[in-house]
Amino acid sequence: MVVVCIVKNCRNAKKTTKEKNCNLFRVPKDLDRSKEWLINCGREELCSKSVETLYSNYRVCMNHFKENMFSNPEKTRLLISAVPNEFVMHTTITTTSISVDVSTMVDEQINLSSPSTCKFIYVFFFIH
């Protein structure tokens, strides 16, 4: 089983985008601390799980902790009081190019100088 970060939109929340050498930390066994972690991470729905399940199966990556929350320079151990509170999200935005050729969509000209003439133009956008 590949363990990933529980923070939504974190690049380490998916095994396909997980950073190499990114340390993951277990959700604490202490009930109050584990709830604080889950709430800070925006994962309140996990609060109903047992502390044992959270500790065994859920992790938060090192990117969500401030520098002063680590007990060593390698960032492999957290201070007992550490709480995740760094949430810069890395999202991917997909854009779609839309091109419209209006000249092929209008099949007749409109004479704007004649007030009695009322025409409707339907414009369709084709996304490809």
From TrEMBL:
Signal sequence residues: none
Alphabetically ordered keywords of this record: DNA-binding, Metal-binding, Zinc, Zinc-finger
Pfam families xrefs: THAP
Domain THAP-type stretches: 1-87
GO molecular function: sequence-specific DNA binding; zinc ion binding
PROSITE patterns: ZF_THAP
Keyword Metal-binding: yes
Taxonomic superkingdom: Eukaryota
PANTHER family in UniProt: THAP DOMAIN-CONTAINING, THAP DOMAIN-CONTAINING PROTEIN 10
Protein name: THAP-type domain-containing protein
Organism of this sequence: Macrosiphum euphorbiae
Lineage of origin: Eukaryota, Metazoa, Ecdysozoa, Arthropoda, Hexapoda
